[in-house]
Specification:
CATH architecture: 3-Layer(aba) Sandwich
Shape: globular
Largest sheet: 6 strands, mixed
Helix content: 25-40%
Radius of gyration: 17 Å
CATH topology: Rossmann fold
Strand order of the largest sheet: 6-7-8-3-9-10
Number of helices: 7
Number of domains: 1
Number of strands: 10
Distance between the termini: 21 Å
């Protein structure tokens, strides 16, 4: 299994549970959407799996390794080498160009920069003309597409995406999903309430206050 989440619980404050006994597994190639209303814990669960948020109880294993046993340095190593993360606020470096942001990501992952691969991904997202553009000069939708490239460029074991289509129109959303879901071996976990995204996912998990349950969608 790429990811095993076992009875994970989280409270914002003591006595105010948001996630309770959340359990699921993702194998290589699975595409799952976390769905639920605002405040249901979708983004929190993404942050927990990424090692960016502590949780109350339960265990998380990524590629067989227990995340709860890692210190901060080890969690950083996992994020750099095994995860690709698409944040709601992009988390790009605005003073750097698109290419420089991607080069930095690959350097952190210990991988060489391959311009042909980067250009191929940018072309599929209709962003090839912006490779030398500083991120701060891009629109929100363009930054979201760059964030997708950054998350996928190192071919991580698991991609975590938090509302990846939030700033995109229908055409851009289709382009993003075509790239995100193209590889049958890529494991993807998306937090979303966007029906355009849900229609393309193989599995859904309803996340609600107190509990979560899996819904398999044909």
């Amino acid at each position: 299994m790429i990811l095993t989440v076992d009875h994970v619980c989280f409270e914002y404050r003591k006595g105010q549970p948001v996630l309770e006994n959340v359990s699921f597994q993702l194998k290589r190639g699975d595409k799952m959407a976390l769905v639920g209303p605002s405040g249901s814990g979708k983004s929190t669960l993404i942050q927990i799996i990424a090692g960016l948020q502590n949780w109350a109880s339960g265990s998380i294993h990524l590629d067989g390794e227990p995340m709860q046993a890692h210190n901060d340095g080890q969690l950083s190593h996992v994020r750099n080498h095994k995860l690709g993360i698409i944040f709601q606020d992009y988390n790009l470096l605005p003073a750097l160009t698109v290419e420089e942001n991607i080069r930095l990501r690959l350097a952190l992952a210990g991988q060489p920069f391959q311009r042909p691969r980067l250009m191929e991904m940018l072309e599929r997202l209709e962003m090839q003309d912006y490779i030398k553009t500083k991120v701060r000069q891009l629109s929100g939708g363009q930054q979201q597409r760059v964030a997708l490239v950054r998350a996928m460029i190192s071919q991580p074991q698991l991609i975590l995406a938090d509302e990846p289509s939030g700033n995109l129109d229908d055409v851009s959303t289709r382009l993003l999903l075509d790239v995100l879901l193209a590889d049958p071996d890529q494991t993807v976990l998306v937090a979303t309430h966007d029906q355009r995204v849900l229609q393309r996912m193989a599995f859904r998990m309803e996340v609600g206050l107190w509990r979560a349950h899996a819904i398999h969608v044909a």
